[in-house]
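Input record (one chain):
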Amino acid sequence: MKDQFYIVDADVLITAKNRYDAFDLCPGFWESLIYHHQAGRIYSITPVRTEVLAGRQTEDLVQWIKGEVPQEFFWIVDAENIMGAYNEIMEWVTGHERYHDEAKTAFSSTADVWLAAFARVHNAIVVTNEQSSPKSRRAVKLPDVCNKFNVEWIDTFMMLRSLGVEFGMKRDDS
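The corresponding structure, as predicted from the sequence alone:
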């Protein structure tokens, strides 16, 4: 495996598409993801791909993943060591008295548990827009799981800054 790299959560892609980095407003964001993936710095995992592809097939994000993103962008998470980390994380979550049963069930059905397990095994940095909420009872937050299992996590903008990504303005000189 490579030196430390970033592993991107679905919310990073979905939020960017819906808000500040829409494909028509900031194509450089999407180009930078592919560029830094090719440089070995940004990846995601197959459960994230599955979550995103569950959207409308005509959405820009779904079309981008199907048409632009190399298959290798999404790591498969079926390795034995990742399964072991997954089981350890889920054991902690399900045994935690603070979380409601609905929160535990919801967490187990998302890519978040896989992101934490993968990042733990491969010393990757999780990139998520989710915020830590250690007192939450109704939702298991990915950053809180990362904190518990000593997995580094950052938000989208911290990742972009650390990679030195800059977006220029397109000028209409006509």
